[in-house]
Amino acid sequence: MPAPIEDYALLGNCRSAALVSRDGSIDWLCLPRFDAPAVFAALLGNEENGRWRLAPSDPVESSTRQYLEDSLILETVYSTASGRARVLDLMPLGDTNSVIRIVEGLAGETSFEMDLVLRFDYGRSVPWVEKIDLLTLSAVAGPDRLILSSSVATHAWDHHTGVRFRVAAGERQVFSLRHQPSHLPVQPDCDLDEAFVHTLNEWQTFAGRCPDVGRYSAQVRRSLITLKAMTYAPTGGIVAAVTTSLPERVGGERNWDYRYCWLRDATMTLLAFMNLGYFDEAQAWREWLLRSVAGNPEQMQIMYGLAGERDLQEYDLPWLAGYEHSQPVRVGNAAAGQHQLDIYGEVADAMTQAIKGGLPRHPRSAAIARLILPYVESIWREPDEGIWEVRGGPQHFVHSKVMAWVAFDRAASLAETTEEELDRSKHYRRVADEIHREVCTKGLDPSGEHFVQAYGSSEMDASLLQIALTGFLPADDPRFVRTLEQIESRLQKNGLLLRYDSDSCGDGLSSGEGTFLVCSFWLADVYVLQGRHEQADALYQRLLGLCNDLGLLAEQYDPTGQRMLGNFPQAFSHIGIINTALNLHKAQCPARARCG
């Protein structure tokens, strides 16, 4: 049985990621990259689907865990009746693709047990395992090879590999599991001590560039590290989460693969990076974007693979029982073929902010914009599946229309000094004004009092908060104020926001899901805009209190069951942590005072 979602820690090397439970079991790991088939898939099944547990064999009296300061190296300290020891877990940064686990004795003597269950292809394939020497074994299945190197001899039983050993104070044992193509000769292991020091220094150097944001600084740095870990270094692509099929409702069907690069999520990550001064990461993402979307604007997708792949075919893995029996377990994502109008506005806003933030203009970006904007002009009146990727058929979602307005509004604001560009800017402004008028006419409820989820609907949607956050209307506009009141009264659940009411909205799936955390961060941002700083800060502190002991957040939260739901960790949620902290910090600074 997998652990609760919030009990997991994240390891990562900006190529792939692993999830480690409180009891020392790595239950999720995809190699050699985020979207590769898992070699440990116990998270979505059981231990026979692959896992790597390393923990005391004696009863544990207490345990604590933390990341070594401003890094992604996990330290877990165990106390037993006979001694105290720590386990250091990391995925080294660099060209290798490996996991290192170090056991160090701190006091007395502690007994440990290591149990390695290697399964390829999402827990389906048992590899061919053989000893290379006393301390090294190789596991091969098809194109992949995993090599375990250890400082203590292991033995095999019933398709498991393991060992029991003891560490006294000052002693240590080291295990390294690395991936390579199976057709190549076995590659030598890296210098583990050197890899440890290099990885620690790299993470701390990265985090050290983060500006001070007052009392929010520690959590902002942790979220920044988390987002960096979800970046695929070879291309600059940013995944929405490192997992697939963690349920939005336990036992339900709302289980999706988030190991891909959504333009929406990635553009918001770009803005978070830029707001903190991380322009190298922002530039790498922009390069990824321009490569991925190049071509016919009609073929622009809402998401891509890590290197810009377009074919993300969705299929089920019936041999996996699913997290707490939440089925189906899905790989790929059919939403890649959906029409979602809002992504054009997200990308336009991000590119505009990049230029205003000092990122040099890219010659290809202007050319792509000149292709995309006429296309958006031709389709913005059409219905779409919207930001929440509903599977109940397209609608005229108000948020989608607002983001179409954003695309033209931002394009108009980037006018050059040439006459040709000025003419183009005027045209973009006319289109933006036309969209604005239609939304303010058709996007309101029949009484004309407040905005609704879609034209002709009576439902509310938390994405309507973007009406103020994008500048479509001022936060004090009476129509928006009444919209906010409706959202608060109809979508709040124990002080947190649902994205919409799945019981009544008819999104094509069975009803029921948790509160969508980024929506509550948006609510706090709106409170800041309205000058309700104490209320914004109180909500923000409530949200921070939902993070696990390592500062990590999933996509959703169930206030009734008091547990996390959805894929983990979720980029959207950590973007919320960063951006709301920045908004609060700026609001608390005197006008024109230098903050940070």
UniProtKB/TrEMBL annotation:
Molecular function terms from GO: hydrolase activity, hydrolyzing O-glycosyl compounds
Organism listed in the record: Pseudomonas putida (Arthrobacter siderocapsulatus)
Pfam families: Glyco_hydro_15 (PF00723), TREH_N (PF19291)
Domain GH15-like: 217-581
Residues of the Trehalase-like N-terminal domain: 3-126
Listed name of the protein: Glycosyl hydrolase
GO biological process: carbohydrate metabolic process
Gene3D superfamilies in UniProt: 1.50.10.10
Alphabetical keyword list: Hydrolase
Keyword Transmembrane found: no
